[in-house]
């Protein structure tokens, strides 16, 4: 008799539990903030990508209400039918100006943006070169493109150059996180661009964790390095530092027009609610005008490093709000995360396959809404757990 098809699923789930890789969701009962409620208990949270503390900003809430009154709550169609609103269009123009590109194109998520860019620009006769620590969305996009997919060790540009030298592909794409989401380090964009210039390749930058945080007025990693190039295709998300939802791709006009014509994750989906674009215009104003938010992040990063310098577990050398504390073993990372939770502090344990085997970690995410006292409290709690076996 054939076996129950669910038995294999249950076996896989049991295997995850044995390996300490089983994931569970938190259910928040409050808005996103540094203070959240879960199952009736308040926690100090270091687990959100809301770096600039805009997700619950009163001005954005007001803009959401205004946008709903003006545009309703749903787009009703894809962008290429009748779902492209004046709010979408205005936001695309504003984002293009903000990051210094001729045009920008909105996507519903960063995952969809990366999928759209990579599959529209690369196919069977092309080659994609990717940092091994890239976000899963870039890897999945490369696989979906059916291009030759080559990965180079993290930030190892000599290996990347050898790969580019050997490639006979019609079209080459170098794809990389700009700020690596689990390590917090910044890609050497100038050196990557020099290689792309030398070997006639596109450079696709995923700046999900740099947009709003790095560079003058939060204009992102390219502004941080003062780099501009028509060879760069720039993607950033709008649900992290911007505090709302969505993503955009900025590039030359011909690239954006190609995406409108070819990017399946743009063409074949309902447009995001236009009210969100209305809110994001307000968010963009706050990102530009309220530099104190980025200043707070810098202060918190320095303070956290000082608080944790005596620990036997070490922070990776990140200058961004992503502060990874390497624990090593999956079960130990889980135990420390749970011990912090018992003290009313939420810090997630990140395990394979999100990170490499043997590098399970606590991913500490800093926010402009954290206080100096919050950093001290976390440091004290972690020092108290330093003897956890």
Largest sheet, described in full? 7 strands, mixed
Question: What is the alpha-carbon Rg in Å?
Answer: 21 Å
Number of helices: 15
Shape: globular
Q: What is the total number of structural domains?
A: 2
Give helix and strand order, one letter per element, not per position: HEEHHHEHEHEHEHEHEEHHHHEEHEEEH
Could you name the CATH homologous superfamily of the largest domain? Answer: Type I PLP-dependent aspartate aminotransferase-like (Major domain)
Structure description:
The protein folds into two domains: 18-52 and 291-384, Aspartate Aminotransferase, domain 1 (Alpha-Beta Complex); 58-289, Aspartate Aminotransferase, domain 2 (3-Layer(aba) Sandwich), CATH 3.40.640.10. Helix content is 43%, strand content 17%. The chain is built from 15 helices and 14 strands. A seven-stranded mixed sheet has the order 3-9-8-7-6-4-5, with helices on both faces. Strands 10-11-14-13 form a four-stranded antiparallel sheet. The protein has a three-stranded mixed sheet with strand order 1-2-12, with helices on one face.
What are the key terms here?
globular, 4-stranded antiparallel sheet, Aspartate Aminotransferase, domain 2, 14 strands, Aspartate Aminotransferase, domain 1, 389 residues
Task: Describe the structure concisely.
The chain contains 15 helices and 14 strands. It is an alpha/beta fold.
How are the SSEs placed, and which strands pair?
Blueprint: H1 5-18, E1 35-38, E2 41-45, H2 58-71, H3 79-83, H4 86-99, E3 103-107, H5 110-121, E4 127-131, H6 136-145, E5 148-152, H7 157-166, E6 172-177, H8 189-199, E7 202-206, H9 221-225, E8 232-237, E9 247-251, H10 253-262, H11 264-267, H12 274-289, H13 292-308, E10 314-315, E11 322-328, H14 330-342, E12 345-346, E13 349-350, E14 360-365, H15 372-384
Parallel strand pairs: 2-12, 4-5, 4-6, 6-7, 7-8
Antiparallel strand pairs: 1-2, 3-9, 8-9, 10-11, 11-14, 13-14
Helix pairs in contact: 2-12, 4-12, 5-6, 7-8, 13-15
